[in-house]
Write a structure and sequence with these properties.
Layout lengths: L16 H24 L6 H13 L4 E2 H7 L7 H10 L3 E5 L7 E5 L1 H21 L5 H17 L1
Antiparallel strand pairs: 1-3, 2-3
Helix pairs in contact: 1-5
Length: 154
């Protein structure tokens, strides 16, 4: 039999309910995050930058060092220092060496960063309302409880 006519073995997995759920969660998450990036684009923000600003805003005057921020991000950024560089270049955060540990650089949100959050937050809130409009309040609460339970076991 010529080389081009050989049968290629194919993997035909049995797709379990659990695999279908995992794939669907990944698909929905990717779609939701794409929409977040689209909504934030007019504000010159990415979803990761918005998330970092929200975290730094919540951290208050003490700010956070890179590893602390990284641990709190929704989607861990592969290069937190570069994420912080971009935020600092835009004037949305300020950084300084931690006086207690000179190896760490603390990041704090600036008034301009707070203003960027104030400007963009309504668009993000409206997007989330639209994304979840097909679910009732009770379904949203159930979904959140199930996701919390899933997150605890992961």
């Amino acid at each position: 039999m010529p080389e081009t006519q050989r049968r290629v073995a194919r993997f035909r997995p049995t797709v379990s309910l659990e695999e279908r759920i995992a794939v669907r969660i990944a698909q929905v998450t990717a779609g939701l995050m794409r929409e977040v990036d689209q909504v934030l684009n007019p504000f010159s923000l990415t979803g990761s930058q918005y998330n970092a600003l929200r975290i730094l805003n919540g951290a208050g005057a003490d700010g956070l060092c890179g590893p602390e921020l990284s641990a709190r991000l929704i989607s861990p950024a592969p290069d937190v220092p570069r994420l912080l560089d971009r935020l600092a270049e835009a004037g949305w955060i300020a950084r300084e060496r931690d006086p207690d540990n000179r190896r760490f650089v603390r990041a704090r949100i600036t008034p301009e960063g707070v203003e960027r959050l104030i400007e963009s937050a309504p668009a993000v809130a409206a997007l989330h309302d639209r994304q979840l409009q097909s679910l009732s309040r009770e379904q949203r609460e159930t979904l959140l409880a199930l996701l919390d339970q899933l997150g605890r076991s992961a």
